[in-house]
Amino acid sequence: MSQPVGSVHVGERALVLGGSIAGLFAGQALAEAYREVVVVDRDRPTAATGTRRATPQAFHAHALLARGQRAIEDLFPGITQECQAAGVPTGDVGADLRWVINGRRLPPMRTGLVCLATPRTVLEQHVRARVLALPNVTLREGHEVQELVTTPDGRRVTGARLFDLVGGESRVLPADLVVEATGRGSRLPLWLAGLGYRPPAEERIKIGLGYATRHYRLPLGLLGTDLAYIVAQTPSHPRGAVLARERALPDGGERYVLSLNAHLGDHPPTDPDGFLAYARTVPVPEIYEAVRGAEPLDEIRSYRFPSSLWRHYERLTRFPDGLLVMGDALASPNPVYAQGNTITAVEALVLRGQLRRGGEPRPVEFFAEAAPIVRAAWDVNVFGDLAYPGIPGRRTPKTRLASAYLSHVHRAAVHDPAVAESFLRVAGLIDGPQALLGPRMVARVLRRSRRPGPRPTPAAIHS
């Protein structure tokens, strides 16, 4: 098999465990450096036309953060335009999304940051098509990873033992590099322990998050030219929602997704009456008015996310060569903040950058370089989630101060476009949290946060 033009040869075969978003991103990066890339998945993703068993979260509302859009465009040049041409709504993060925090809308502002409001299934289909079009990438579906294979001293991973779920046969597939991307349920900590390595320390925030989602046929132009309502959860307004355009329908209407969510077990019901009653409690009455008489396109589905999780591989001092970890297998943050795909895309850029510098990527160096993007996202999780008194966790003076300050940012943002834009840039992982901590910004936030803000008006939705 031939490598893409302009690539550098690092090894003969790379093996990616997991064929969802993280595995596909890894495959794209690895294809430049390995003569053959094999992506393995227990499921059969190419046969799926909707939500797969392995990715139940794909049924619910999704969008890419601004940094995620940039990273994916870097990995797959032209994919934003490709998605637009396929009907995926795209707009400016500040001008074309209606952000509501504490029941009050942020002022619209042009940020220059692109929101690609693509459903998870659509994004995965486009990415998979790009990756599998590469001449040196193959996908082995219906194969379960049984164990890692190593050198006799266990210091290097040399492949994996795969079980063919259809043929019933087990065989070892050798590889120069193995990337673990099987997701949150990764068995790598157990495998490492079995090889005599210390498993990574795990950091968890027990949030008790629950989603419920339904898709509707709604009139064309319901939100005008805007893409969505994003109703953020906060301690004072703990029930959140996303009402977003997904695509045009053949009959002239539009397909919308409505996802309702809350922490601490306050989960939206899945019966139609209960779902609508819950929607009515969200602090944007226009959402309930839009869907209460609308035509549903499917049944209501729920999704539970008990805790955010970060496995600290970057803290390990011993780790086998020939093995990396990406995606939810490394860090699985609160999906309310929509960070997962962005973190994974940036990890793939880290991997590609190390490969382009020549030589096999070293695990310690990879984890160290990937950790800052995870940390930036994790801090958003910690400061936001630990503001809820009922969420257990260690609240250091720094955490308490940051959570209190974040509430001031939320209040100030409804008055001040500059604060709102800075907040959206931090939430989109374009800037780090320090962007909100400069002396001038702090003074601005504290001054503007004292004023009450305007509520969304009934005219915001067009009938």
Automatic annotation (TrEMBL):
Protein name (Swiss-Prot/TrEMBL): FAD-binding monooxygenase
Organism from which the protein derives: Phytohabitans rumicis
Gene3D superfamilies the record matches: FAD/NAD(P)-binding domain
InterPro entries linked to this entry: FAD/NAD-bd_sf
Keyword field: Monooxygenase, Oxidoreductase
Molecular function terms from GO: monooxygenase activity
